[in-house]
Amino acid sequence: IWLMVLIMTCFxxxxxxxxxxxxxxxxxxxxxxxxxxxxxxxxxYVVSFLALVWVLVWVxxxxxxxxxxxxxYYSNDSNNTNDSTSxxxxxxxxxxxxxxxxxxxxxxxxxQNVLHVTVSGVVGTWWFDPQDxxxxxxxxxxxxxxxxxxxxxxSICMGRYDSWFLCLPHAQNNFRILTYCSFFxxxxxKKSLLVA
Length: 196
What we know:
By secondary structure, the protein is mostly helical. It is about 85% helix and about 0% strand. The protein has helices spanning about 1-15, 20-35, 40-80, 85-130, 140-150, 155-165, 170-185, 190-195. The chain is flat, with a radius of gyration of 25 Å.
């Protein structure tokens, strides 16, 4: 089977070999536009920092929902209440975690695409007006970021919201993994919950 994969790879390489010079020139031109606009790198670090802050807020909320779920579970278990109360608190916890997964995916995708639209705008400005986009913090970066966070922001947000439904099977698998890992990452005992 590996020999067949090697043969198919060789045929594919031969079939697209004539496209390599065009791809190389396109990559060279794109890298030249990014070298001239060094502020894009600073902007990418700022967006990465915002994503890190978002992850910290998200993990804090997830831990809060987990603690609340375990507290209600153990308090219902010790009081011997009926099953309807424990199932509704469990449903609230699962709904909260699903909402958190949606918000995590959506926010990270929105931040990523705002940066993508900004970089695309800077490269487009550099292509058509090199004088406007040829300094470290050129006006092209500010204008592109303004366009990405105002005029195009609704399209970015809606497009990322729609992608959630396409990624839902993967999110369900990640939810299962998250559930299994939470028992090992956050070992919570009845005694530690009642102290809090």
